[in-house]
């Protein structure tokens, strides 16, 4: 799919991978709209990028419905949705972990939000000559990281959903489903995970996303994720142990 002269919505576009991807897509001749819940951050990012923005809480059904109505009214040629917004908690499972509450927040943002937004935008995307949905998951989507246990659960769920959606929509639509699985990226959200010391720049992820879509690679690996996935397919137990070495 040639990613130029398209109208693109990027969730979580105020920083990190979303911001870097928006910047690259603009340079490639696309119209970009960014969305998120932090109005101040979005306004700053939109001014820097020279794009439109829509403030909205993607975990709230009414807010998402309003977002979709605005997109249908003002951006009727929207053809690419990039589900990038995410949240994660660094902790270990145990009797005092409060895992249910952490998982609830992670699933609301990382799974239910993109599933809801995607479903509501399908009628608009189906009207376009070609369209794409891009789900940003993670290398933890195919094997868990013990210090991101329920984040891993949520990203695994979105991975499974992406596969099912791809197969379903391939039967009678022109909508392509891409999944992006990055390794550690240096963003504000990954500081507690060692992102500043060991993470790749978000611009690297943005370039891989752009290249992968243009090359119709439906599973796009960023950084070490490709080798990690190959290792997992070869020997799952050894790959998971290596991935979590020193963490448990």
TrEMBL record:
The keyword Magnesium does not apply. It comes from the Bacteria. Its EC number is 1.-.-.-. Keywords: Oxidoreductase. SUPFAM superfamilies: NAD(P)-binding Rossmann-fold domains. GO terms for molecular function: oxidoreductase activity. PANTHER family: DEHYDROGENASE/REDUCTASE SDR FAMILY MEMBER 7B, DEHYDROGENASE_REDUCTASE SDR FAMILY MEMBER 7B. Belongs to the short-chain dehydrogenases/reductases (SDR) family. This is Oxidoreductase. The lineage of its organism: Bacteria, Pseudomonadati, Bacteroidota, Sphingobacteriia, Sphingobacteriales.
